[in-house]
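Q: Sequence in, structure out?
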Amino acid sequence: MIMSKLPRFLLMLVALPALMAAQGAMVSGPMLGHQAKREATIWLETEGAKHVTLTYWPSDQPEEKKAFTKRRLRPTPIAKQPMKFILPLLEPGQSYDYSIIIDEVPQEFDYPLSFRTQTLWEWREPTPEFSFLFGTCAYINDAAYDRPSTPYGKGTQIYQHMADTAADFMIWGGDNLYLREVDFDSEGGIWYRYSYDRAVPDMQRLFATMPHYATWDDHDFGPNNSNRSYSLKATTLKAFTTYWANPSWGEPDNPGTYGQFTHGDAAFFLMDNRYHRDSDKLSSEELGRMKTQYGQQQREWLKQALLACKDLKMFTFKFIVTGGQMITDFGGQSESFGLYPEEREDLLNFIVKHDITGVVFLTGDVHFTELARKKVTETQWIYELTSSPLSSGSWDVGKSQRAGDPQRVKDTLVADQNFTKLTISGPKDTRVLTITCIDKTGEVRWTRDIPATDLR
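A: Exactly. Output:
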C-alpha cells in the first residue's frame, strides 16, 4: 500500500537494481561459424538472458538492417545459453557488419563485428587466393581441477597472434579442449569444460575475426585415448556440436563430428576418429572385420565425397582433417593410423586407384609440428601437415626414436607451442600451397611451398 503511493520515478529507482540483476550477460563470443556464398553462421553464449537480438547489414549500406531475435533460450545443464544465428540469403562476396543486444542492452566490443561471404568466382573470375589457420591441442589451465603439478597449459598469448594473421578462416583439428578426470564422468562436468574453455579472454578476438571449423580427438571426446566404448560419448557429441558451428555433423543414421565444406578451389573433409573407433589393442582378426578409426559408413562416406569432388573438376586441393597422424609408421608412440594399417592401406589405395589428386592430410595429437610426405605413385606425393600444440605442453621428439623420421621434410620439426598458416595462390593451372609455421611469440619458424603438380 505504501509503495503504491510513491511517485513513479521513485518506484523506478527502487526497482532498478532488480531489473539490472535480471539482465542477461555475454559469456563468450561472438564466434563466426560456417560462411558460405549466401549464408553465415554466428555463435555466441549468454547467461540469464531473456532474449538476444542480432542485427546485421551490408557494410556499405547501413540503412539496410535486418534482425533476428531469439527468445525462450534453452539453457545447458549448467544454465548457460549457447546459440547460433544463421543468416540466410546474403549476397556473395559482400562484407557485413552486425551488432548484438541482450535484454535491450547493446553489447560493446574492443574489435569490429563483421564478416564477409565467400565470392561467387566460378565461371566468372580467376581462382581466388586465400589462407587459413590450422592447429590442435589447446589446453587451458583451470587450477581448481588440474593435476597438482606444473601447469600443462603454456599460456594463451598465441591466440592473439593468430587473430592478427588476417587469415580467411581457421580449422581446429582436435583436442580443442581437454576434459579432466573431474569432467568426463558427468554430464555437468562436460558442459562446464566446454563453456569454461570457450570463454578464455585471449581467444575472443580470434573467434570474432574469422570463421571457425572443428573436429575432435580424444580429449574433447572423452578420456585420454578413448574409443567407441566411452559411455558419455553422446553427451560430448551434443556439447561439441553445440559449441562449434560447422555446416553439418555426421549423417542422419550415423552420428559423429564428420562433415565437409569448401572454400575457393579447396575441399575440406573433417573426420571423426573417435565416435566409432575400435580399441587399438584389438586386431582385425579378433573383430572379424577391418579394425577402424572411422567405422565403415564414415570411411565409405569419405570415399564417395572424394569422388564427388573429383567429378566437379574445380577443387585443386583436398584437405582431410583427422585427429591422429596418417602416413607415419611410428604407431605405438602415438595413436596414429600405424595402429590401423588395413584402414590406412584401404584409404591410400583408393586415392591412387581413383586418381584423387591434391590430397593433403591435416593432423595433430602428438604435441609437435612437422611436415611429412609419402610417394604413392611415380609422380604423386601425399603430404601430411601435423600442427601441434597450440597452448598445451609439447613433446621433445628430438630425444626419441622419431627424431630421424625419414618421411619428415627437412627442418620442419617444431617442438613447442605453434600454429600453421596455409595459403593457396597462383593461376589455376599452377596453384601453390604455402605452409608457414608460427610460434607462440609470433615468430616464423619455417615456410614451405608445395606446388599442386606434386600432388597429381
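Residues 184 and 222 are 6 Å apart (CA to CA).
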